[in-house]
Amino acid sequence: MQPHNEIKASARLVLWTLAWAATLALAKFGPQLLWNTPQQAASWAAVAVNVAVGIGWIVAFTRFLRALDELQRKITQDALAVAFGVGWILGFAYVVADAAGLVARDVDIAVLPTLMGVVFLVAFFVGKIRYR
Predict the structure, then answer these.
(1) How far is CA 60 from CA 6, 21, 54, 110, in A?
(2) Helices 2-33 and 40-67: crossing angle, nearest 10°?
(3) At 2, which helix (H) or strand (E)?
(4) Which ranges of 34-108 does DSSP label H, i.e. alpha helix?
(5) Predicted TM-score (pTM) of this structure
(6) pLDDT per position in the chain (132 positions), as tens?
């Protein structure tokens, strides 16, 4: 029964991830492409929907973790810890360096989640190899 639950939880997580990405795109690009920028009510509504779907994604991810077997859960949680740590340390290092005037140009905020995603994937695959 365990593999069936993992597949079901994985499918739900994929759907919630796609929904969250779609609502994020709507909130980001809606003011320029779908409605006029001065319509703040539409923009706030899109942001609120994105946050609500994000909460649904968090619940789906929690259920996904519960559906995994112990080893998969450990590998995933270890990878999440490394990704969070790298994001936390580098994020604050950038803030401090920027405040001290050491950074010549601003970095787009999208770099941080992208970096964390790459670190997560690397840490996840290292964990899979380590526990083989």
Answers:
(1) 12, 14, 10, 23
(2) 170
(3) helix 2-33
(4) 40-67, 70-99
(5) 0.79
(6) 577 888 899 999 999 999 999 999 999 999 988 888 778 899 999 999 999 999 999 999 999 999 999 999 999 999 999 999 999 999 999 999 989 989 888 888 888 999 999 999 999 999 999 988
Rounded CA-CA distance 99/93 in Å is: 10
Nearest CA among 89, 97, 76 for reference residue 115: 89
Helix (H) or strand (E) holding 122, with range, is helix 111-130
Residue that has been written with the tokens 């969070």 in this structure: 84
Structure tokens at 103: 């950074």
Amino acid at residue number 110: A
